[in-house]
Amino acid sequence: MRLLIRSAFFLFLFPAILMGCAAQPEKERVPFHIWQHAFTLPTDSMAAMAVTDNTLLIRYQDGARLAVSLVDFTSEPLPEGTELHPYMDQLYGNGEPEDPGLKQAREIVFKSVEERSVLTDKEGLTIYWLVEESRSQAFVVDDSSDDLYLMLDSEGRTLESILGTLKRR
Amino acid sequence: MTDRVELLEEDHVYARRVIAAFFGDAFSASYTTVNHDVIEVLGHMIAESSDCSEWIELVPSPIAPVGARPGLEWSLRQVRKVGRGLMASAKKHNFMCLTSVGRNFRTRLEEAKMGLGGF
Prior knowledge:
The complex is a heterodimer.
Chain A: H1 2-19, E1 29-34, E2 37-42, E3 46-51, E4 55-60, E5 65-72, H2 84-92, H3 100-110, E6 115-120, E7 125-131, E8 135-142, E9 148-155, H4 159-163, E10 167-168
Antiparallel strand pairs in A: 1-2, 2-10, 3-4, 4-5, 5-9, 6-7, 7-8, 8-9
Helix pairs in contact in A: 2-3
Chain B: H1 9-23, H2 25-28, H3 36-48, H4 53-58, H5 72-88, H6 96-102, H7 106-113
Helix pairs in contact in B: 1-5, 3-5, 3-7
């Protein structure tokens, strides 16, 4: 199951990798791994990088931020019986929330969202994409995983522009 | 002003309890000590989730100052109030609204913990 969501993450990043990035010497790029996949990111505009248990945090010199988190949904303090896929669809997607708490949450979350989209592919990957004035968030779920999701969060730069600077090693 | 706000030993416990209410015990476990930035992020989370009725039931009126971002002192007062409320309650809380809203602040909170700044 974990392998599938890992693969899904790779697929999610793949279009960004295909976009390529400006040619830079390797010494100006920092290498890192996401599971079995190796990437580099340009360091010229990076101010700080940190890794916590399940999150990669990057702060850029212009104040922009990027975070990539792998979250175990079952560890979140939600009411018993809450299932990942309907929950995500009702909170971020096109589903109609039935639970009053979830309904309230959706209203609060969408207060500042200017654009949103739900992307799916034949591999069973669903990406809930939310764009605010200066922030982008993406929640990535895999049909075959009931417990894990990925959260990408950027501020000051769009997720697309940051992912576009990734290069596969 | 910020430097003069002293975090008491119990403030770390309250903060961890508030973090657990939003994100669960596993996530909160790494917040053994907290800093001013973490407290401020928690203040924003409490303010942002003030429309969650399930929350108001437990902690009445966590309303942020009108027209202003919650500052450190306000945030610390809320963390203490909410932390005490959660600790005094024997009930195990699972918050649908709170957890969902809190997720929006996960990155900010992690950055604050790692010393990369809060708000």
